[in-house]
Specification:
- With about 350 residues, the chain is mostly helical.
- It folds into two domains: about 110 residues, Tyrosine recombinase, N-terminal domain (DNA polymerase, domain 1), CATH 1.10.150; about 160 residues, hpI Integrase, Chain A (Orthogonal Bundle), CATH 1.10.443.
- Helices cover about 50% and strands about 5% of the residues.
- The strands form two sheets. The protein has a three-stranded antiparallel beta sheet with strand order 1-2-3. The chain has a two-stranded antiparallel ribbon with strand order 4-5.
- The chain is globular and about 70 Å long.
């Protein structure tokens, strides 16, 4: 370890080494986290990776804590950092066992819940913002439908124009498994269902999108995709980008990360939208929507059918309600139907 290796150079080499094994969004998240690390080393006067030992690694963790990050976010940053240090050890920039000395904060289920979902207040504020400034745009119906129906990205992408049914006050989406034309459902035929759109404003939005804003295109199988670009059926990455952009916090108020609208790379470059620390993924929208359904008192079996998820999976991975939220839900049902004195 005689050669001086600046942290910035080590980070770039590490990212290059992982370029072919990471999805774009994952690489952007890692780059963002390690960018914070590089900035910290500049402030701390650390100009050589060889300076890193257990104490210096601990100081970086404490710097993340002092920055006011949520516990789960600190954990994510430190897991990325440990993987980076492990790589540095493998190429001789630091001691090969240094990564074993990095302490990763433990998190509780409630910690994880707060960070990997979206709260109803925020989701509804986003819907209202899109209705005011981007009415019936693709982004509007993508976010609106994901939040209202709790469906998977693949299910949304699989929809055709003809799968939207709207008559009088009744609106629904017919979700179908069509693997032969490149729109399979995760659960195959078992994932097929009709999903009610119970919000009339959302039904009107979808109707207006189809009539006025949807590109008049077919996909390579001569189907008319509901979620469309100028080139055909939208890719999953396009849908993810729409969600990332819709959930950027600066669209609703001041940026919590100190960025300005004119210079923020996440806001002005669609390819970078997913690396915004506060942006939310479609899976987070799905998890938040399922929790919101349950918190509104919708029975689990109904939520499971609507979102195409088993009761066990729903309980283990999607139900983010607190103990008190669950008690309040039970109380509502008891007040309605409990007759014992």
């Amino acid at each position: 370890m005689s050669e001086c290796v600046p942290p910035e150079d080590a980070v770039e080499q590490y990212l290059t080494s992982r370029r072919n094994e990471l999805a774009d969004a994952s690489q952007q998240n890692i780059r963002y986290r390690l960018k914070q690390f590089v900035e910290w080393t500049d402030e701390a006067g650390v100009d050589d990776m060889a300076e890193f030992d257990g104490m210096l690694c601990e100081q970086w963790k404490l710097a993340r804590v002092d920055a006011g990050l949520a516990r789960i976010t600190v954990r994510q940053h430190m897991m990325t950092f440990r993987h980076f240090i492990r790589w540095c050890g493998s190429v001789g920039y630091v001691d090969s066992d240094l990564h074993e000395k990095i302490r990763i904060p433990r998190t509780t289920k409630s910690d994880r819940t707060r960070d990997d979902t979206i709260q109803p207040e925020r989701a509804n504020a986003i819907v209202n913002h899109l209705a005011q400034f981007s009415w019936a745009s693709r982004c509007h119906i993508v976010f609106g439908l994901l939040w209202h129906t709790a469906m998977r990205t693949g299910s949304l992408r699989a929809l055709d124009v003809g799968d939207f049914h709207y008559s009088g006050s009744d609106a629904y989406l017919a979700v179908s498994h069509r693997p032969d034309t490149d729109t399979p459902l995760k659960l195959g035929d078992e994932g097929e269902r009709n999903v009610t759109i119970a919000n009339s404003d959302l039904a009107d939005t979808v109707s207006d999108y189809i009539e006025y804003n949807r590109p008049d295109v077919e996909d390579e199988h001569n189907r008319e995709p509901l979620i469309a670009t100028d080139y055909g059926r939208a890719a999953k990455t396009t849908i993810r980008t729409d969600v990332y952009r819709a959930t950027q916090p600066c669209l609703l108020g001041d940026c919590p990360h100190g960025e300005s609208e004119s210079t923020c790379v996440h806001l002005n470059n669609p390819d970078k939208a997913g690396s915004c620390p506060s942006a939310r993924s479609p899976h987070m929208i799905r998890r938040g929507a399922i929790t919101a359904h349950l918190d509104d008192g919708v029975p689990k079996e109904i939520v499971g059918e609507r979102a195409s998820v088993s009761a066990d999976t729903l309980e283990e991975h999607y139900d983010a309600r607190s103990k008190e939220q669950r008690r309040q839900n039970r109380l509502k049902h008891l007040k309605k139907g409990f007759r014992h004195q």
